[in-house]
Structure formats: C-alpha cells, structure tokens
Design brief:
alpha+beta; Beta-Lactamase; 5-stranded antiparallel beta sheet; 15 helices
Length: 535
C-alpha cells in the first residue's frame, strides 16, 4: 500500500470521526433548543389559561349582578356556563403547572378561591330566586364577594408574574441553545469544505494513475487486436459509461454498421429500449464489485432497423487498484434459438390453455375452473367480499341424446353454454364440469345480486325457448352456495354444497310435477318459476 493511500485513508477516518462528532453535537443542541421552545410555548399556555380563568370569573360576576338587578333567568344560564368554564379552566391550569411546585401551590389556592367565590355567588342567586331581594342586595353590596374576587385576581396576578419571569428565563435559554446549534452547524460546514478540498487532491492523484493505466492499455491493445480482428463473433470493448472503445470487424457482417460508424456509437444506442435496464444492472454490479463476469442476452439494433438477439459473455477488466477500467464482451447471434424458444413457449402456453378449456363449449373445464377459482377465492379473502357458486344441471339431456341423438345433445349443451355467457357478468367465471353440469362463480355479490342473476337466467331461458323452433326445450335446475370470507371453505366443498341444493330443487320440481326452472338457492328461498317444458 502506497504512503499516499495510507495517508488518504487516515485523513478520511479522522474527518469522518470529526463529522460524526459535530453531527452528534448539532443533534443534541437541536434537542435542547426544541425543549426550550416547548417550555416557552408551555408558559404561553399557562398565561392564556390564567387569563381565561379571570375572564370566566368576571363573566360569572356580571351574570350574577344582572340576575339580581333584573331577575331575568337568562342571566342564570350565563352564570352556570361561566361557572363551569372557570372550574374547568382552573383544573386545566393545575395540570399545566403540575411540574412547578410553587405554581402548583398557588393553583391549589386559586382553585379554592374560585370555589368560594362561586359558592358565594350561588347563595346570592338562590336568595334572588326566592324573591328575597333585600338579602340578595345585601350580599351583593357586602365586602365578602369583593374580597373573594380580589383574592382570585391577586392569585392570578401572582401566577402570571411568575410565568413572565419563567418566560424570560426560557427565552434566554432558547436563544443560547440556538447560538450553540448555529455554531455546531458552522463547524460542520467547515469540516465538509475540508473534505471537499481533500477529495479534490485525491481525484487529481487518481486521474494521474488512470492516465498511466491508459498508456499501459494502449500497449496491450495491439496484441489484443490480433486475436479478435478475425473472429466471427462480435467482440466489444466499452468504458464504464457505455461508450464503445473497440468493435471487431465482424460488426459489419452481423449488424451492418461500418467500423467508421462504430466509433460514434454508444452501447445504449444499439441496445433495445426494453433491455437497457438489464444491461445497466449488470454493469452496475460490475462497478460495485459484486461480479466480475456474466452472461447477458439482449437485442441489438441492426443498421436497417431490425433487431437481433445476441448472447454476450461479459467480463470486467480492472486496474491495479481494483477499480473497473473497462468491459469486454464477446457475443454471438442467437436469434434463431430465441425464436425457437419463443415458439416452444407459445405452444406450451397454448397446450396449457387447451387443457383448461372444454372442447365442446369453449368454457373452462373442471381443471380450469378449480385453478382460476383459487385466485378468485384469494381475492375474496383479501378484500372481504362474498362469492356465489351456482351449480347448474341441464335437465333432460339424457332424453335428448336417447331420442334425438348425441348431435342434438351436443347442440343443447352448446346452447346452454351460450345462454350462460350472454346472461352472466363479464367478471363471472363460467365452466362446464362435465356432461350436463355447469357452474358459475360470481364475485362480490349479495343476496339481491344472486336474486337478480337468478331472474336473468330464468327470463333468458324462457325467451330462448319461446323464440326457438327446435324440437326440444332447454330447462335448468340449479342450486347456490355462498362463500363467506369470514368462514372460508374449500372450493370442492362449496361445489358439493351447491350440488346438494340443486338436487333439492330438482326433487321439489319433480314432486310438484311442474316443468320449470328450479331455483334451489338455499340462501334465497325463491319459489320455482316455469321456463317451458323440459326434455
């Protein structure tokens, strides 16, 4: 380790210690200044509270005199209000001066004097209330009321004077603390200026070292060119900021740029906008020393505007001090491989979607329903809203298959699926579980919404049967089970419950021998309505 580097580290350590010390001192001074300001504010609160006590007592005395003179009951209300205000304010004053023993004693005396004055005024009001005007005037004109009021005024004046003295002391303390804080901040500013000066000297020394490193790089560059000028892969050298320092001649055949044009290019100008963040993240890791090599796959723009995928092996080249000098990268065109991978991924996703869909109706199948319903259940639990599962059975499908053929049966299933799609909301999950069984999972519903969906299904079924000239009729039986996020159950259990209610509805319909759509909701005790004859 050079002597300059050791001196630099020692200076930075001492500067850091001094900066921490000054910051700590500034923080402590700031706390003291804030505490002093809080005490000043506290003094203002005590003075204001004392003023309100005196004001309330004056209002109280005026109200009593007004009542004695006029006998107007409104003065009694003003007296009571002023008495309450005075008592409340005295208690508030005691709370404010609790930490000051001298003021606390005076506050106790003030509370007693106020209570005595209020009691005396109450006796005057009682005498006037009983029409004993002579006694009321005698009490009002006597010296006791004035003496009690003078005691209140004297106590308030004493406490106010004490607070005035405390206010002067606390203001002086706040000003002294403020001066200390300003001094600490000034000291810190000087420290920072010293650090900046030292940093400037360090930067100059580092710049000289970089200049020597550049000379060494120039000597080795010729040897490096002999190795990379004739390779078919794309070889790049770029500095820490992304400016291209060297590009192999294969650039012209791979991307269509001339070597003269390459001298004006920056890495960011040829990397696809969506891949810039990926490339920058790798370079940041290199600069931070978190990695020395990486494999980066990104898109580069050809001279004709087309983008090609390249896979680069990138490595950082460091100087003697361990800092990143530049980056070197060797890459090859992997566009064909990426396109094949993308095609395979799309085919895999298409196969996955096909595995979740029913081939006859295009609705989700049982697997797709269970997979997507899990997401809806998580949302319902997080947002605390209900779900409703409608288990629907296409009645008479066996008769259609037996009497008219399976082609007509498939047609009836498709018509039932179209009817559900046109009736349910876009946010509802519709699936064919198999055979003649369908399910609708409705999100964020209450009983009125379920009833509205039931009514829409009933109306749509009646209209479809009325307009149709086919030789069979569609009929549904279904049951409803609700998912409550406060008492969650599995989707399989919810389907079993809805299936049971659908079966109960079907039994009731058969029992009454009415060919109608049966609504066995359980939660909604809806009567069954006719929807046309079932097959």
């Amino acid at each position: 380790m050079s002597a300059f580097l050791r001196a630099k580290r020692t200076a930075w350590g001492a500067a850091l210690f001094f900066a921490v010390f000054v910051l700590t001192l500034s923080y402590v001074s700031g706390l003291r200044y804030k505490k002093a300001l809080d005490w000043v504010e506290h003094t203002h609160l005590v003075r204001a509270s004392l003023e309100r006590v005196l004001s309330s007592m004056i209002d109280h005395e005026s109200a009593v005199r007004g009542y004695v003179i006029t006998g107007d009951a409104r003065f009694l209300a003003r007296r009571a209000e002023a008495a309450r205000a005075a008592a409340d304010e005295v208690r508030h004053t005691r709370e404010l001066v609790r930490d000051n023993p001298t003021q606390d004693v005076r506050a106790v005396e003030l509370e007693r004097f106020v209570a005595d004055k209020l009691a005396f005024a109450a006796s005057v009001a009682v005498a006037r209330e009983h029409d004993d005007l002579a006694s009321a005037n005698a009490l009002t004109g006597g010296f006791r009321g004035k003496l009690l009021m003078d005691r209140v005024r004297w106590t308030v004046a004493s406490m106010t004077a004490e607070e005035e003295q405390l206010l002067d002391e606390r203001r002086a303390a706040a000003n002294a603390t403020q001066r200390e804080t300003v001094l600490a901040i000034g000291t810190l500013a000087l420290c920072l200026l010293g650090l900046l000066a030292f940093s400037f000297v360090s930067m100059q020394r580092d710049a000289n070292e970089l200049e020597r490193a550049a000379l060494e790089l120039a000597e080795s560059e010729e040897r490096y060119r002999l190795l990379v000028d004739n390779v078919s892969d794309l070889v790049l050298l770029h500095d820490r900021e992304g400016k291209l320092v060297y590009v192999s001649p294969s650039l012209e055949s791979l991307l269509g740029y001339s070597l003269a044009r390459a001298a004006t290019l920056e890495l960011r100008s040829v990397v696809h906008a969506d891949d810039v963040e990926l490339v920058e993240s790798h370079l940041s890791r290199f600069r931070a020393g978190a990695a020395t090599s990486a494999v980066v796959t990104c898109r580069l723009c050809r001279n004709d505007g087309d983008y090609r995928w390249f896979e680069f092996k990138v490595a950082a080249v460091n100087d003697e001090a361990g800092a990143v000098r530049h980056f070197q990268a060797a890459g090859r065109d992997v566009t064909a491989r990426r396109e094949l991978e993308q095609c395979l991924a799309e085919q895999a996703e298409e196969l996955r979607q096909l595995s979740l869909r029913d081939g006859l109706t295009g609705l989700y199948n049982r697997r797709g329903f269970l997979e997507i319903s899990l997401q809806l259940v998580r949302v319902a639990e997080r947002q605390k809203h209900r779900l409703a599962a409608l288990f629907i059975d296409l009645d008479g499908l066996k008769g259609i298959n037996d009497e008219l053929g399976h082609e007509r049966g498939d047609r009836a299933i498709g018509e039932a699926a179209d009817l559900l799609r046109s009736t349910c909301r876009a946010t509802d999950l519709i699936a064919r579980l198999g055979g003649d069984e369908f399910v609708v999972l409705a999100s964020d519903v209450d009983e009125s919404a379920i009833a509205a969906l039931s009514a829409r299904l009933e109306h749509a079924l009646v209209e479809a049967n009325r307009r149709s000239n086919r030789d069979y009729q569609l009929a549904f039986s279904f049951g409803v089970a609700c998912f409550d996020p406060s008492a969650p159950v599995s989707m399989e259990k919810l389907l079993v419950e809805a299936d049971a209610r659908m079966y109960e509805a079907k039994v009731r319909r058969r029992r009454t021998r009415v060919n109608s759509v049966a609504f066995g909701t359980g939660a909604l005790d809806r009567s069954e309505r006719a929807s046309g004859p079932s097959s």
